[in-house]
Amino acid sequence: MTSPEILGLVEMAVSAAIEGGNEILQVYGQDFAVEYKNDNSPLTLADRRAHEAIMRILEPSGLPVLSEEGKAIGFETRRNWGQFWLVDPLDGTKEFVKRNGEFTVNIALIKGNEPLAGVIYIPVTGVLYFACQTTGARKTVLEPSGKQSFDQIIKDSTILPESFSPNKLTVVCSRSHMSAETEKYIDQLRQTHHDVDFVSIGSSLKLCLVAEGKAHIYPRFGPTMEWDTAAGHAIALFAGCTVRQADSGAPVVYNKPDLKNPWFIVSR
Q: Would the pTM of this model clear 0.85, i.e. be above it?
């Protein structure tokens, strides 16, 4: 795929993420009901409205879409996909329900089983992350109007990492999903590093903090799905980080028969 083709798809994903975020904010400002799926994870009207808006904008690409809110696509179909979109319309629904602002829209472009590009948008703050080989990993804050062109978005963005302190180890973990295995891993880090900081935050923002250089490592020894991590994986990757399986050290891959991720570690 050529650079103009990739940039065109990233531009489409940025537009889709912004529109999905706008739908989320409309629900966020109201009283809303919360349903629960079979795995006891929350679901709101915002998830559905964001999914519909994103699907509408990505449809002209002609690429298949695997989304958390439309995930009933069997591997026999998916295994033949060369490229596809991997989408979480509202990552961090628990944070959305808590109204703490730490939720995102995640859109990744996958080629084979690797992330080719990623977009993460934070609706409450207007912060946008995007990454591909052509642009590298970037971050910007959108204008309140949200009307600037993609060329202007690129021009206004900064290349990641923004900062990096090699002297103090900063570990980022989930605000809502801390496991005993993660706590044990952090204790081990404290034994080998005299100065360890700890940051807790929701959704895919954990991968973004490592990409930015605000954290050095994100250990995830708990359940996640492919759509939770793919966009952040791309942003971390093009910011010079690795996203590897905790047991083998092999890269995390996508479009598996089972869409659950293995335990993994994001590090710089």
A: yes
